[in-house]
Amino acid sequence: MAALSLVSIRSDASISVRVYEAIRAAITATNLYEIDESSLRLDERELAGKLGVSRTPVREALVRLEHEELVVSFPRRGYFIARKSKAELLEIITVWAALESMAARLVALGASAGAIASLREIFATFDGHRIAANLDEYSDANLRFHQRIIELCGCETLRRTADGIMVHVRSIRHRTIGENERFTRSIVDHMHIIEALEARDADLAERLVRDHALALAAHVDANDHDL
Amino acid sequence: MAALSLVSIRSDASISVRVYEAIRAAITATNLYEIDESSLRLDERELAGKLGVSRTPVREALVRLEHEELVVSFPRRGYFIARKSKAELLEIITVWAALESMAARLVALGASAGAIASLREIFATFDGHRIAANLDEYSDANLRFHQRIIELCGCETLRRTADGIMVHVRSIRHRTIGENERFTRSIVDHMHIIEALEARDADLAERLVRDHALALAAHVDANDHDL
DNA sequence: GCTTGGTATATTGCATGCCAGAAACGAAAA
DNA sequence: TTTTCGTTTCTGGCATGCAATATACCAAGC
Fold this sequence. Notes:
Two copies of one chain form a homodimer.
Chain A: H1 15-28, E1 41-42, H2 44-51, H3 55-67, E2 71-74, E3 78-81, H4 86-110, H5 113-122, H6 128-133, H7 135-152, H8 156-176, H9 182-198, H10 202-223
Helix pairs in contact in A: 1-3, 2-3, 4-7, 4-8, 4-10, 5-7, 5-9, 7-8, 9-10
The structure holds a DNA duplex.
C-alpha cells in the first residue's frame, strides 16, 4: 500500500456517545452551585428533542453520567444533575489527593526534564499582582497545573480515574481560589512542588502534593458553610 | 404518627440494575484469564433471553459495565468481557496503591482501636504452615485485609473508586499469591502495616501500604509474562 | 383551614421493530 | 492454492409504542 498518512476517519460518533459528550460538556460548563433547583432536572424527551435524537441514546448517555456520578436518578422520577454535599466534596478532594500525590511520585521518578519544565511554563506569565488582577485566568492555570501532573505521570488508568472526579475538583478550586488570598499560598506551594520534581525527590513531591490538596480540603471544611 | 420503625420498602429492583448485578456477578465469578476467547463475547439477545427480559435493560447494564471497564464494546460488533493487558494491570495496581495508602493514612489518623484490631483478626487463624496448606483460603483473607483497610478509612468516595478496580486486583492477587512463596513476605508486610496503624503512625502506614502494593506490581512485571 | 381521597396528566422503564454495518461464507479469478 | 469480490446472515444502534408509577390538581370531609 502507498505510504499515505491517513488519519482514522472515526466519525466514531455513535449518537449515544455524542449525546453523552454534549450533556457532559453542558454540565461541566455550568456552575452547579449557583443555579436554582428546578434547572437540575434532566428531562429525557426535552433533551432528545433539543438534540434531535430519540430517547434511547439519551437514556444510555444518562446511564453513563450516572455511573460517573455527574447525575443521579430517582426511579420513576427521572434524572437530575448531581450536587455534591460538603462532606462528599471533602471526600472527593481526599481521593484527588491520593491520585495526584501518586502521580507526583511517578513524575519525579520517570518524567523527562522537558515535561517537568512544562509545569513551570504554566505560571510563566504570572507574577504576584498579575494574579490578583486576573483571578479567573490564574484559576485556570492552577487547574491546568494539577491536571498536568496527572497527565505527565504516564498512567492512563490513573488519569481516567482522576478525570471522573475532575469536574468537581474544578468547581471547588474555582470557588475557593479567591477566598482569603489563598492564591498567594497556592503559588508558593506550586513552586515547591516543581522544585521537588526537578530534584527527583519522589517522597517530597508526593508529600507536598498531598498536603497541598489536603490543605484545600481543610480550607473548604472551615470556610464554605453554604454547600 | 405512631412510632413505628418502618424500613423503606425498596423493591429498588429496577430490571436493568438487576441485570447489571447479574452480569457483574457472573463476570466476577469467572477467572477471566483462563477462559477461551470465544466465551468473552456477550450477546445482547442471548443475555436477554437467558435472563427473561428484553434487550433494553441488558444494553443499559452493558453500558454501565463498560463505564466500569469490565466490558469493552466495539461499535457495531458487540460487547466483550474486558481482559486487561499486563501494562494495564500494572497501572491498576498503581492506582490501587494510591488509594489504599491514602486509606491507611486515614485509618491511622481516625479509626477506632477496635476497627484496627479487626484487621488482626483476619489473620488470627493462620500460622506459617497453615498458609501453605490452605492457599486459597489465605488468598481470600489477604484480599479481605486490603479491602478492609479501605472500608475502615470512612471515605465512601474512596471506597467506591477502589471498588471499581477491585475485581482486577482480586484476580491479580489470587494469581500471584502462590508464586515464589510470596505469602511469607506478604504476612510479614501485613503485620508491619497493622503495627503502624496501631501506633497511629500515618506516614509509616501509608508508606508500608504503598510499598506493599508496588512490590506486587514489580513482581507481576517480572514474573507474569503470559498476560 | 387543613387534611384526605380521587382523578388526570406527565414521564419514566421496558418491549419491540427496523435498518445499517460487520462477519461469515462461497464462488470466481489470478 | 490464494486472493478478491459478492451475497447472505447476523447483530448492534436507534426509534417508537405501551404500560406502570409519580406528581399535580381539585373536590369533599373533618
